[in-house]
């Protein structure tokens, strides 16, 4: 399994990974995003392909995530460039028992250190206990919880990086 930066040719695979998650989560009544939320024409309004990464296993894309150095919606008080943020972390169901999630979290923290950021930061909906546990298991500490986007209670997490 390997992680690499995504390119234009990966857009369909990125959408497929995200759609796989949307459909599975909807089927178990734990909806996170809509199909429209993960369509490239929506994602590309706020993100560029060079922010995305893919995880490949035997030549097939099985996971995706994006890294950016600013998050004015969920972390407006943090100066752009100060921290590293992860969004749209997603692993296909058929790779759920693989080490993809662990690899992504390790990569996220390593990139934060390599880029000399003060912290790695992320957010999730407060009503997602399994996801919150996953982040906490990887050393992320809860910063706060509250309604940042109207109608959604959000939990914000941080992993402090060494100097």
UniProtKB/TrEMBL annotation:
Residues 1-163 form the N-acetyltransferase domain. Its EC number is 2.3.1.-. It holds the Pfam family Acetyltransf_7. Keywords: Acyltransferase, Transferase. It comes from the Bacteria. The keyword Transferase applies. SUPFAM superfamilies: Acyl-CoA N-acyltransferases (Nat) (SSF55729). The keyword Acyltransferase applies. This is GNAT family N-acetyltransferase. It comes from Dielma fastidiosa.
């Amino acid at each position: 399994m390997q992680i690499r930066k995504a390119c234009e040719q990966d857009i369909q695979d990125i959408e497929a990974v995200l759609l796989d998650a949307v459909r599975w989560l909807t089927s178990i009544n734990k909806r996170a995003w809509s199909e429209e939320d993960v369509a490239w024409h929506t994602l590309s309004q706020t993100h560029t392909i060079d922010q995305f990464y893919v995880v490949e296993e035997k030549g097939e894309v099985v996971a995706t995530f994006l890294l950016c150095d600013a998050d004015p919606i969920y972390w407006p008080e943090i100066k752009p460039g100060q921290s590293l943020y992860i969004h749209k972390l997603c692993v296909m169901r058929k790779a759920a028992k693989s080490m993809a999630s662990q690899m992504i979290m390790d990569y996220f923290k390593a990139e934060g250190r390599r880029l000399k950021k003060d912290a790695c930061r992320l957010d999730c909906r407060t009503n997602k206990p399994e996801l919150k546990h996953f982040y906490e298991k990887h050393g992320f500490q809860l910063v706060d919880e509250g309604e940042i986007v109207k109608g959604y209670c959000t939990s914000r997490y941080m992993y402090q990086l060494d100097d």
